[in-house]
UniProtKB/TrEMBL annotation:
This is O-acetyl-ADP-ribose deacetylase. Keywords: Hydrolase. Its EC number is 3.1.1.106. It holds the Pfam family Macro. Residues 1-170 form the Macro domain. One of its GO terms (molecular function) is O-acetyl-ADP-ribose deacetylase activity. It comes from Methyloligella solikamskensis.
Length: 173
């Protein structure tokens, strides 16, 4: 049974097949969730990312999880917010779709996402939550191996925002 759920907590502590890193295009250790994932995974993650090189906005790459409970890290590069008229919505949706497709390709059944692009990249959080839920729901329907999508929210405000987006999406199904 396919499942989407909201969890509040630290994404680096989740025991899932893959966690998604809100990565930068260079796949380099950064701040926010990216920095937390790199610190928890250990220095091997940065080495694996350096071997891959870069990743364009909207796309995703996969590495081992190293010291994380998650067996893999999927690095998705979200868009920087430029006001909404520069393809940001589609690029953000592509992060979720491409991450789920990559998980399916690697035979993974569970994947956890942070709120991609809502930190330093400035994407409006309410809008991002609705796009995340919609894109993940569509991708789940297309990728049979992936059974569970978790939206891991750092605080209660983000969790509430994602719960509201998920409830609204389910009503439309």
């Amino acid at each position: 049974m396919k499942n989407m759920e909201i969890v509040q907590g630290d994404i680096t502590r989740l025991d899932v097949d893959a966690i998604v890193n809100a990565a930068n295009a260079q796949l380099a250790p950064g701040g926010g969730v990216c920095g937390a994932i790199h610190r928890a995974a250990g220095p091997e993650l940065a080495e694996a990312c350096a071997e891959i090189g870069s990743c364009p906005t909207g796309e995703a790459r996969i590495t081992p999880g190293f010291d994380l409970k998650a067996r893999h890290v999927i690095h998705a590069v979200g868009p920087v917010w430029h006001g909404g008229d520069s393809g940001e919505d589609e690029a953000l949706a592509a992060c979720y779709r491409n991450s789920i497709a990559l998980a399916d390709e690697h035979g993974l059944t569970s994947i956890a996402f942070p709120a991609i692009s809502t930190g330093i990249y400035g994407f409006p959080p309410d809008r991002a939550a609705a796009i995340a839920v919609q894109a993940a729901g569509e991708a789940l329907a297309e990728h049979p191996k992936v059974e569970t999508v978790i939206f891991c929210c750092f605080d209660d405000v983000s969790a509430k925002r994602h719960e509201e987006a998920l409830t609204a999406w389910r009503k439309r199904q």
